[in-house]
């Protein structure tokens, strides 16, 4: 689910979400571990000078944590160029990472954002961010620390996500697989809405992977070899645009990789590949009962009749790419 301005107002009026944990320290204790500037901004609600940090123009993949308690707050995927002079994000990494407070200082009505774990002042959130959230988290760079991460995320769809998710979970270098929706127009879609075929969304998976262990190219060729990419809007008995074969790219390099992999696989097939290649916009995680469906419901009819045979072929085909412990 992505947060919108109405959610922010709800938090202010009805209380902030419960954090995963709390860190409480006295002013004296914070002073000992923070620099003077970090203390002034995070514990005394200071504001750094605009354009004073290189973090504004930093867009390489990674995560941003609270400088005080090191809780991860933002992902570089939600960072955008706002030209305001402060690092800007459209979403926190988790709904409960940030707390929201009414701030009427300086004769303005603003919404202050703090770290929900340790109450560090971070900045403010405004309702003039880019779609689909429309939010702009305007954050002091001094409040954040960048965590370098090798992890990348790839999003693609090839029919029912129960199947595709089950396969990709088993690959070496894959850290996490989540089922969800992408490629359509409805914000925060439900499974029922996507099933109607009217949202434009496809059932997809978001694969978090380590490129030095498995490449984007590998992921795409495995994807194209484990579903039928030559049929429009259909996989097995599932029919509808939500089951279309689709690959999302996040930059030009991924776009050319997708074109190249499709050409390579095309050489092996008689029928024409109809997989759509689309610019990535947003991934909406599906409802909890869809996550890890195969492992949670191994006795289910769909799992035994549809996923099991696919998985067997898959494990045979990609023997040398599987995790050891599965
Ligand atoms: Zn914190």
Automatic annotation (TrEMBL):
Cofactor(s) listed in the protein's UniProt record: Zn(2+)
Active site: 160
Domain MsrB as annotated: residue spans: 27-149
One Pfam entry name: PMSR
GO aspect biological process, one term: response to oxidative stress
InterPro entries to which the protein is assigned, alphabetical: Met_Sox_Rdtase_MsrA_dom, Met_Sox_Rdtase_MsrA_sf, Met_Sox_Rdtase_MsrB_dom, Mss4-like_sf
GO molecular function terms listed in the Swiss-Prot or TrEMBL record: L-methionine:thioredoxin-disulfide S-oxidoreductase activity; metal ion binding; peptide-methionine (R)-S-oxide reductase activity; peptide-methionine (S)-S-oxide reductase activity
Keywords: Metal-binding, Multifunctional enzyme, Oxidoreductase, Zinc
Family stated for the protein in its record: Belongs to the MsrA Met sulfoxide reductase family.
PANTHER family noted in UniProt: PEPTIDE METHIONINE SULFOXIDE REDUCTASE, PEPTIDE METHIONINE SULFOXIDE REDUCTASE MSRA 2
Protein name: Peptide methionine sulfoxide reductase MsrA
Organism of this sequence: Sporocytophaga myxococcoides
């Amino acid at each position: 689910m992505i947060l919108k301005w109405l959610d922010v107002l709800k938090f202010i009026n009805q209380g902030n979400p419960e954090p995963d944990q709390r860190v409480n320290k006295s002013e004296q204790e914070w002073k000992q571990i923070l620099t003077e500037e970090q203390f002034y901004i995070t514990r005394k609600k200071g504001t750094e000078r605009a354009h004073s940090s290189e973090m504004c123009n930093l867009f390489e993949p990674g995560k941003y944590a609270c400088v005080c308690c090191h809780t991860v707050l933002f992902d570089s995927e939600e960072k955008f160029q706002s030209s305001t002079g402060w690092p800007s994000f459209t979403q926190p990494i988790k709904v409960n990472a940030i707390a929201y407070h009414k701030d009427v200082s300086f004769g303005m009505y603003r919404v202050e954002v703090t770290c929900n774990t340790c109450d560090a002042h971070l900045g403010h959130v405004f309702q003039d961010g880019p779609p689909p959230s429309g939010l702009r988290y305007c954050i002091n760079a001094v409040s954040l620390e960048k965590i370098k991460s090798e992890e990348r995320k790839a999003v693609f769809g090839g029919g029912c996500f129960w199947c595709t998710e089950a396969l990709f979970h088993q690959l070496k270098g894959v850290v996490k697989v989540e089922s969800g929706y992408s490629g359509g127009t409805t914000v925060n879609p439900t499974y029922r809405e996507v099933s109607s075929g009217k949202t434009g969304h496809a059932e997809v998976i978001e694969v978090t992977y380590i490129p030095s262990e498995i490449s984007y190219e590998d992921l795409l060729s495995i994807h194209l070899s484990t579903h039928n990419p030559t049929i429009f809007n259909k996989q097995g008995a599932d029919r509808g645009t939500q089951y279309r074969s689709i690959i999302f790219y996040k930059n030009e390099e991924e776009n050319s990789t997708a074109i190249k992999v499709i050409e390579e696989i095309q050489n092996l097939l008689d029928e024409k590949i109809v997989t759509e290649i689309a610019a990535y916009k947003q991934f909406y995680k599906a409802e909890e009962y869809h996550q890890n469906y195969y492992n949670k419901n191994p006795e289910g009819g769909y799992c035994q009749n549809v996923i099991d045979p696919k998985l067997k072929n898959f494990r045979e085909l990609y023997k040398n790419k599987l995790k050891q412990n599965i």
